[in-house]
Amino acid sequence: MPGQHSELLQRSHPPLGNLEGVVTEIPADRGSLERRIAKLTRELALARRGHQQQMAEKTHQLNRLEEIIEALPGGVVVLDGIGNIRAYNPIVAEMFGQPLQGIAWQEVLARKQLPDQSEQEGVALQGGRRVVVSVRQLTSEPGVILLLHDVTESHQLEQTANRQQRLAAMGEMSASMAHQIRTPLASALLYTSHLKRPALKEDGRIRIADKIRARMIEMERMVNDMLRFARGGDSTVINEIDLNALLDALQQTLDPQLEQSGAQLHIERCEQAVTFSGNYEAILGMLLNLATNALQVATSTPVLDVGLTVSERSIRFSVADNGPGIAAEQQARIFDPFYTTRADGTGLGLAVARSVVEAHHGEIRVDSKPGEGACFTITLPRSAAPQMLASSSDLAGLRETVEQGAFPPGFDSGEVRS
């Protein structure tokens, strides 16, 4: 037994030795683990402080951005994907009142906007305020921000300056008008005195009456030209104009002159119904003015062609005649008020035409060579109503994004026209 016990003890000694080695290694591994845990703890603390610092900086940037937006002299509106208002600054609340949150932008605009407005002049609101709306596309997500610029004061100053210019021009015109009206008026008075002759037959009375009427019409045209020029184009009332109906009215109004002069008139029309926005009376008067003057300057049988080109955005009229044409040096002054080469001209025909076209934010030009007639081309926009875009996002959503740690990236000429 003793021998066996000794042998048994010797067999068990190596395992006991290994256990002692394991026990001695544990403290060393435990220290390494503690050091790794401490290192990770420090790294996590640094990362947390860095993240908190970034969050604080972004929150500060957002707060500063909100303060800047609230302090802006213009309005800022943020719309969601279906055009509803999600955020706006105090200027917008002042312009449109409350509440605005969640309401469709077009609905808000409709309840404050005056009808029949021109896009280039901005949006006229009730109370006399006028704003220009700009659109900025968001880059972080679908949507737009609307920027509203108050141009009330500058628009009023521009209107005042234009009115003063026209009044000054009218002062210059008064002497010319006195002379121009005196001639047909004196003729009318003379013809009137002839009507008193007892021996005058009925056909003679009719001829004199026709001459008196012609002089009255001439004076009426002068006065109307002066009034249109003074009003600056008559574009304050905007209508939806049927293009073919406008051209029919032009034809009907010119028919008496055509029959009297034997002139030929060709008017191009649209095969389909086409409408555009503008002041009906002013545009019809402008076309009549151009056509009438073209008929008056013709040295032979007048031939007048009214052309038409329709596009998605514009309407283009052309009024071409077979008159004597316009010299190049006269074309430079052709649209100036009171410039005329006609003895009986007021010098307002083409000035009024240009005034009407410019009031509609269109263009008018003339192409002519002496002896080859003249062609006036008028281009008018089809729409005079402001077009507002609408889409998405808001400052509240931006704050939420920041809190989640994802800050997004921010008529007178050498062609003798009146």
UniProtKB/TrEMBL annotation:
The UniProt transmembrane annotation reads none
Q: Which residues form the Histidine kinase domain?
A: 176-384
Task: State which Enzyme Commission number(s) the record gives.
Answer: 2.7.13.3
According to the record, the residues making up region (Disordered) are: 1-20
Q: Pfam families of this UniProt entry?
A: HATPase_c (PF02518), HisKA (PF00512), PAS_8 (PF13188)
Swiss-Prot/TrEMBL keywords: Coiled coil, Kinase, Phosphoprotein, Transferase, Two-component regulatory system
The record's catalysed reaction(s) read: ATP + protein L-histidine = ADP + protein N-phospho-L-histidine
- Residues of the PAS domain: 61-97
Per the record, the coiled-coil ranges are 30-68
- Please give the name of this protein: histidine kinase
